[in-house]
Structure formats: structure tokens, C-alpha cells
TrEMBL record:
Residues 671-701, 755-774, 789-803 have a biased composition (Basic and acidic residues). Residues 671-740, 754-814 are annotated as: Disordered. SUPFAM superfamilies: WD40 repeat-like, Ypt/Rab-GAP domain of gyp1p. InterPro entries: Rab-GAP-TBC_dom, Rab-GAP_TBC_sf, TBC1_cilium_biogenesis, WD40/YVTN_repeat-like_dom_sf, WD40_repeat_dom_sf, WD40_rpt. PANTHER family: TBC1 DOMAIN FAMILY MEMBER 31 (PTHR19853:SF1), WD REPEAT CONTAINING PROTEIN 3 WDR3 (PTHR19853). This is TBC1 domain family member 31. It comes from Loxostege sticticalis. It is found in: Cytoplasm, Cytoskeleton, Cilium basal body; Cytoplasm, Cytoskeleton, Microtubule organizing center, Centrosome, Centriolar satellite. Its main location: cytoplasm. Residues 396-571 form the Rab-GAP TBC domain. Molecular adapter which is involved in cilium biogenesis. Part of a functional complex including OFD1 a centriolar protein involved in cilium assembly. Could regulate the cAMP-dependent phosphorylation of OFD1, and its subsequent ubiquitination by PJA2 which ultimately leads to its proteasomal degradation. It holds the Pfam family RabGAP-TBC. SMART domains: WD40.
């Protein structure tokens, strides 16, 4: 047993070589052949496989219980033995080198380290072989495993069963999975029924029973989760819209010589926006068809000569797909190569159909760039300088590639593990009732907004108290909600760079930012600034209102997208120039408004604007503003989020709050030192009084003096207790007064000084009255004590000595 563990820990890795330009699209072929004792070779069949696009890996299992791991990035492969026969495989999202395997004999799922083959955890509970494994996209800790007779939803934080679905004979599970968005759970049953549940509550949402489709075998979703395809043994393909819950189209597959369908899956393509149009169809005759849903045509057919296809697996990003043949071999295809062959075949067929004339010149095929070359060129062009040149030429980025371009401009790290840690913290208490503040009809948008705000508040507690934040991030949620990770990292990067100095005086307005905007407006349009001053309008109205809503209240959706294309393509100072530009371009409309209410409403509604003039003026302000008041003088250069297991700390905390905390700490220290000095002096004075009296008193005066001592000690102890009680009662009040004085000095310095001078005057007058009363009492006591003896004279001398010693000790203590 120990020898097996050592063998597993020291796994030997071997090199693999991929075909660069395969003729048939197969970049690699797997087969496991062993030689028996009699010298005959025997081939072991592969049964299941799965891809991990994040690590560029592939895992395949054969019927003998061997697990093969292929690393396409390092071009290595290795074998893990003794795993046992597997019925399903799935890589764990956001965890390196962790694979979930379903055992064929024990009916459990195990978590396996692909580097050394060690099993860290097993989850029993199924009564039949597990066929399906699926992870939720929005809740990474939710795992779904299913056999034909039951499905179990696991909570991986404590490894417990969250929900169990049991079936009955005749309605067993054909296929079950999470939707790409993770909001719904969808199952296909043998009785030709598709059932949809809400993920969080597991309540049934929809039941689909297609009348045209019989013997349903497979369902598939596009990457954006907006469309679902259903197919079965009857030659019928149905496309269903998940937005409207209605069928989009029904396609008769018998027209394409497809008598029945065993399995379907979408093949995602680069820059298709998640709306995949290529559907892979495995027919009943073990042939794989690539079907274009836009042109409703078969663009390519895969039918290996050696054997038919038993099943196929497509990688999550569509980069690769594999076919497990009936003889047990595995063919791994590069999707781009296969689609290139399909397009070239279509082009050749079109050329053959078009008759050649003397005026037509044949175009060489090698002059048209392939899709792979186009993608490589696009990646090389994804730098800010080239993108900015494109933006200057066309004025905006294309809608289809906007999210990809924004990701490139902001250089988001795609920290899936760090983002998952923020999501796992749950909804922040501040934003649990956000729906009461905003009217959001879409439950999906509301959920994405809550998740984004909660992640921001968990990342930085300051974002949990800023009231304007929901309105600021809402337009970004509407645009990027299909990719929650990109949404969070984009908003976090914007807050980190384009919102510099916004939180310097939080929760008060950003004085520095508003002063910059006012200075820019004063330099370029003094008349408009004078109009604002005459109407009593400050920069909190004509600048802060626009900034806090990220221009979403004053611009239409198209104008907003175009503006943020330019903001993200320029330095952080551009956003302030856009604010001033909006005011200057709307100058004629603003001058006709005279009241404060009219001007305030103007910045809360969409007003017609010439977007080209608006952007042109913003660039003029960016280039022609003098350096003394230019915002770039006060802003830091662009800083992207760091790549790793956690995000860097947000450091734009309000300075006033930090100063207030420091002031409180200093006052606490001063109060503690004052208490100590007073207590120490009191103790020293009592000890010296007792010691001097015991030394200088003779035996005759001890009896008389003892009464006086006891009375004086009683008075001293009573005074000490009273002073302690007063100091305890006054300490929290003093701290509260110190905090109040500090805030008053910040907010109302002039009024505080006047009030304080009055209080000092009143206290001085009251002090004089007290001194006069004390003087009257002392004169009365002198009249009563005219008969004093020599012993009292010696006592007064000792008191004078005591006062001198106490003053000296006080000086040394301080």
C-alpha cells in the first residue's frame, strides 16, 4: 500500500505532440493498447472525458479504471491507476488540479487531485451509476450529481445534501444540468417532459411538453442561456426561448438525412456574444453533424472511417471537442480547424455553382485569411493605442465586441477564486432591501445588482455606506450582467481609477473633485458659471449629480455606451472633462432656466444633445486646459486590479474619518494620564500627613490629635471616593464632548469659537461668585477659631511643607 502511494506521488509525465494543421481537424488521437501474457495486443476502450479550458486540460477514463490527464499548455500527459471505472467526470471550477469522478461500482462521487491521484473526499448517496455532473455558475459551492433514478444537489461548504429529486419508472432522467446563468435547474425525462426549477428555492417554474417531439434524448443551452435546443429519436429539432418561454422554431431534420438524434451540444465561437449558432448533432447512425442555425444548413459532417461515434464532448469555450468512437478510441478536434474546413468547403461549392465568364477572375483561396489568423490579429490589436485609433475613426466600439474591448482596456485579471470568495460571503446586510429603494422589474437584474453591491461592500466596507453607489453601478449591471466576474472587476477598476478623490471627505461631498470641475468651467465658460452663481447653483448640482449617476440619467442608452467607450479609452481625468463638456454644450438650454428647482430637474432627465459635439468638446477641454488646474495633476496614473487569489486593498478612505479616530485616541491618552497624576498626588499627600504627625506629636497631644486625625481621614477618604466617582462619571461625557467639539470645529468653525467665548465668560463670572462665597465662609471660621494653641501652629507649618513637596512632585510627574 505504501509503495502504491509513493508511485502515485511520483507520477511520470510524457510528452505529446499535436498536429498543427490537421487535414481532418484531428489534432490528437488516444488509444490504450496493452499486450497480454500470450503476446496478443488488446485495446481498452475509453468511456468518458471532460475538458477544463482554464487550465487547458483534458481528462479521459477507460473501462479498466485508468485515468489519463492531458495538458495542452505544457504538451504533457500522465496516467493515474487504481482509480476505478468512472461513469462521469468534471473539473471543479476555480480550483487547480481538482477533478470530480463518479465511481461505477460504489455509486459515489470523489474529489481527486490530478497531479498525484489522491482522493480527498467522497460523497455517497446514490443508488445507481451517476451519469451527469454539473456545477452552478453563480454559486460555485453547489454541485449537482444525477443518475437515471435520482438527482442530488450538494452544498460543498459543509458537504451536505441540499435537495434530492427522486423519479419513478417511465420518467427517469435523461439529462439534467444547471443553466449557464445558474439561476435555473433543467431536467429532461424519458416521458418527453422538460422540467425547470428555480435554483435557490427549488420551486417548479416551468414544464415543457413538446407535442412534435417524441423519445426526447438531449437538451443543450447557448452560453448566454437565452436559448435551449431539444432533440430526440424523432427527426425533429426544437429551439426554445428562455426569455419568453416560447418555441422559436421547429426544424425537420429528415430533410438533411438525419433520422434520429442521440446527443446535441452548442459549439461556442470567439466573439459570438454567447448567442451560439453552431449546433453539434450526433445522429442515430453515429455520425456527427455541424448544423448552422442561422442558415439552417449542415456545414460539416464528421464520420470516421474506422468506427462510428458513440458520444462527443465539447469544451466550455468551444476551443476543442472530442469524439469517443465505438471501438474505444478518442479523437480530439480543434474547433477552429474544423470550422475553417467547413467554410472552405462551402466556398468551393459556391465557386463550382457560379459559371465562369471571361470577365470574372478567379480569386486564389490562400488570399482569404482563415478565422484563426483573424482571431490572432484581433488579439494583437487589443492594446489601448490601437483601440483608441479605431475609436477615433468610428466614434464607438461595436456592440458585439464591447465587453471584450472593455476587458482589454481595463486589463481585468479574471480572478475567479478571489471573486468566488466575495460571492460566498452572501448578500451584504446594507443591500438586502435594495428593491425597496429602486423599482427594478427584472428579477435577474435585481439579483445581479445585489450580488455586485455586496461584493463591493465585502471588498471595501466603505462601499457599504455610500448611498449613491447603487445608482452609479446600475447601468454597468444592465450592460455586463451576462458575465458577473467581468462586471465586478470592471466596476472595481473604475472605482479605483476613474473615481479618484471621490471618497476623500465621505460621507460629505468630494470637495476636491467639485473644485476641479468649477475651475475648468471658469476657464472655458465664465458666463455659464456666472449664471449658475446668480441662480444659487453650485457644483454639487451641475457636476456631482451627473457623476453620482455615471451620466445614466442625462444620456440615452446608446449615448451612454458611446461616452463610456471614450472614458475607458482615455486617462482618468476625461470623466471630469465630460461633465464640464455636457454643461457647456447645453449652455443655451441652461441659460433659459432661472430657478434652482428648474436647474436641479434638468440634471435628472434625458435632454437632447449632439453627441459628436459633446465628445469633441470633451477632448478640447482635455487638451486645452492649463496644467495648473488640470485634473491629471492631482490624479494617479491608471492601476489595474492585480492577478491572484485576492484583490488588492482599496486605499481611497476618507481622511476626515481617520483624523477623527486619531483625535479620539489622543484625548483618551490625555484623560488617562490626568487621572493617574491626580490619584498619585492624593495618595502621596495622605502618606506624608500620617508620617509627619506620628513623628512630631508628643505623648500628651496624641490623644487629642487622634480624634482630629480620624475626622480628617474620614473627610479625606470621603473626598477621595467622591472625586473618583465624579471622574468616572465625567470620563465618557468628556469623550463625547471632545468628539462633538472636533466635528463642530470641522463643520462650523466660526460659530463654535463665538459660542466657546461666551461659555468661557459665563464660567469666569460663576467662578468669581464662588470665590467670593468661599472668602465669606473663611472669615466666619476665623472668628470662631480665635483661640488656637501651639500645636495648631506646628500643624500649619507641616501643611506648608506638604504643599511644597506636592508641587515639586507634580512638576516631576508632568
Amino acid at each position: 500500500m505504501e509503495q502504491e502511494k509513493r508511485d502515485q506521488e511520483s507520477v511520470e509525465k510524457f510528452d505529446i505532440k499535436l498536429k498543427s494543421r490537421p487535414r481532418d481537424g484531428v489534432i490528437l488521437q488516444l488509444h490504450h493498447t496493452v499486450r497480454g501474457s500470450n503476446g496478443e495486443s488488446r485495446r481498452i476502450r475509453f468511456s468518458v472525458g471532460t475538458f477544463d479550458d482554464n487550465q487547458d486540460k483534458l481528462a479521459c477514463s477507460d473501462n479498466a479504471g485508468n485515468l489519463f490527464i492531458l495538458d495542452f499548455s505544457d504538451l504533457k500527459f500522465w496516467k493515474l491507476i487504481g482509480i476505478g471505472q468512472c461513469t462521469a467526470l468534471h473539473f471543479v471550477p476555480n480550483k487547480l488540479d481538482t477533478l470530480v469522478i463518479a465511481n461505477a461500482k460504489r455509486f459515489d462521487v470523489s474529489f481527486l487531485d490530478t497531479e498525484n491521484g489522491q482522493v480527498s473526499l467522497s460523497l455517497p448517496g446514490h443508488t445507481a451509476p451517476i451519469k451527469h455532473i454539473s456545477f452552478s455558475n453563480n454559486k460555485i459551492n453547489n454541485l449537482l450529481t444525477a443518475s437515471p433514478v435520482e438527482a442530488i444537489l450538494w452544498e460543498l461548504t459543509n458537504y451536505t445534501k441540499y435537495f434530492t429529486l427522486n423519479t419513478y419508472l417511465g420518467a427517469q432522467i435523461q439529462q439534467i444540468m444547471f443553466m449557464p446563468g445558474g439561476d435555473y435547474l433543467v431536467a429532461c425525462f424519458q416521458n418527453d417532459t422538460v422540467q425547470i426549477w428555480k435554483h435557490e428555492s427549488m420551486k417548479s417554474v416551468k414544464q415543457i411538453i413538446p407535442s412534435e417531439l417524441k423519445h426526447m434524448r438531449s437538451i443543450a443551452f447557448t452560453m448566454n442561456g437565452r436559448a435551449m435546443a431539444m432533440a430526440g429519436l424523432t427527426p425533429m429539432l426544437i429551439l426554445f426561448s428562455m426569455d419568453t418561454w416560447k418555441a422559436l422554431k421547429s426544424i425537420d431534420m429528415s430533410k438533411y438525412n438525419i433520422s434520429g438524434i442521440q446527443q446535441i451540444a452548442f459549439i461556442p465561437q470567439v466573439f459570438d456574444g454567447g448567442a451560439n449558432k453552431i449546433l453539434a448533432i450526433l445522429s442515430s447512425d453515429c455520425t456527427l453533424y455541424l448544423f448552422d442555425l442561422e442558415s439552417v444548413s449542415v456545414i460539416h459532417t464528421i464520420s470516421p472511417e474506422s468506427s462510428g461515434i458513440r458520444r462527443f464532448v465539447v469544451s466550455p469555450s468551444g476551443k476543442y471537442f472530442l469524439c469517443i468512437l465505438q471501438l474505444g478510441e478518442v479523437n480530439i478536434y480543434n474547433s477552429a480547424h474544423v470550422l475553417d474546413m467547413a467554410q472552405s468547403a462551402i466556398g468551393d461549392s459556391v465557386k463550382d455553382e457560379v459559371p465562369s465568364t471571361s470577365t470574372q477572375k478567379p480569386v486564389p483561396h490562400n488570399l482569404s485569411p482563415s478565422k484563426v489568423e483573424v482571431e490572432q490579429k484581433m488579439r494583437s490589436c487589443m492594446d489601448s493605442a490601437r483601440l483608441r485609433r479605431i475609436l477615433m475613426q468610428y466614434g464607438e466600439y461595436p456592440d458585439k465586441f464591447r465587453s471584450v474591448i472593455w476587458r482589454s482596456l481595463l486589463n481585468t485579471p479574471q480572478n475567479k477564486i478571489a471573486y468566488a470568495a466575495l460571492v460566498d460571503k452572501g448578500i451584504h446586510p446594507t443591500y438586502r432591501g435594495i428593491e425597496k429603494q429602486f423599482t427594478i422589474h427584472s428579477s435577474v437584474t435585481l439579483k445581479n445588482l445585489k450580488r455586485l453591491l455586496s461584493c463591493l461592500a465585502h471588498w471595501c466596507p466603505l462601499f457599504g455606506v455610500m448611498k449613491f453607489l447603487p445608482g452609479f453601478v446600475f447601468p454597468f449591471v444592465k450592460v455586463l450582467q451576462k458575465d458577473p466576474l467581468l462586471l465586478f472587476e470592471c466596476v472595481a477598476t473604475i472605482l479605483l481609477n476613474y473615481c479618484q478623490l471621490w471618497f476623500e471627505y465621505a460621507p460629505f461631498p468630494p470637495i476636491s473633485i467639485l473644485a476641479m470641475a468649477e475651475n475648468i468651467l471658469a476657464e472655458h465658460d465664465q458666463q455659464l458659471l456666472n449664471h449658475f452663481c446668480e441662480a444659487g447653483i453650485t457644483s454639487q448640482t451641475y457636476a456631482l449629480k451627473i457623476l453620482e449617476t455615471a451620466f445614466s440619467e442625462v444620456l440615452t442608452c446608446t449615448e451612454w455606451l458611446i461616452l463610456w467607450d471614450h472614458i475607458l479609452s482615455n486617462e482618468p481625468a476625461f470623466i471630469l472633462m465630460a461633465v464640464v463638456s455636457y454643461n457647456i454644450v447645453q449652455k443655451n438650454a441652461l441659460k433659459r432656466l432661472t430657478t434652482h428647482e428648474q436647474l436641479d430637474n434638468f440634471f435628472h432627465m434625458q435632454n437632447p444633445i449632439d453627441k459628436k459635439l459633446f465628445l469633441k468638446k470633451a477632448y478640447v477641454l482635455l487638451n486645452d486646459t492649463c496644467e495648473d488646474i488640470h485634473p491629471r495633476r492631482f490624479f494617479n496614473s491608471f492601476v489595474s486590479l492585480e492577478k491572484g487569489d485576492c484583490y488588492q486593498q482599496f486605499t481611497g478612505y476618507p481622511k476626515a474619518t481617520i483624523c477623527l479616530k486619531l483625535a479620539k485616541k489622543e484625548r483618551k491618552k490625555e484623560n488617562k494620564s490626568d487621572k493617574y497624576t491626580l490619584r498619585d498626588l492624593t495618595r502621596k499627600s495622605q502618606e506624608k500627613i500620617i508620617n509627619e504627625r506620628e513623628k512630631n506629636e508628643d505623648s500628651d497631644s496624641k490623644a487629642m490629635q487622634s480624634d482630629n486625625d480620624t475626622s480628617e481621614e474620614f473627610i479625606t477618604e470621603k473626598y477621595e471616593k467622591k472625586s473618583r466617582r465624579k471622574s468616572k462619571e465625567s470620563s465618557p461625557n468628556r469623550r463625547g464632548l471632545c468628539t462633538k467639539e472636533f466635528l463642530d470645529n470641522v463643520m462650523y468653525p466660526a460659530s463654535v469659537t463665538m459660542e466657546r467665548s461666551k461659555q468661557h465668560g459665563d464660567s469666569r463670572s460663576s467662578k468669581k461668585d464662588k470665590d467670593s462665597n468661599i472668602g465669606k465662609r473663611s472669615s466666619k471660621s476665623k472668628n470662631k477659631k480665635k483661640t488656637t494653641d501651639r500645636k495648631n501652629d506646628t500643624l500649619e507649618k507641616e501643611v506648608e511643607k506638604l504643599i511644597r513637596t506636592c508641587t515639586n512632585s507634580d512638576v516631576t510627574d508632568t
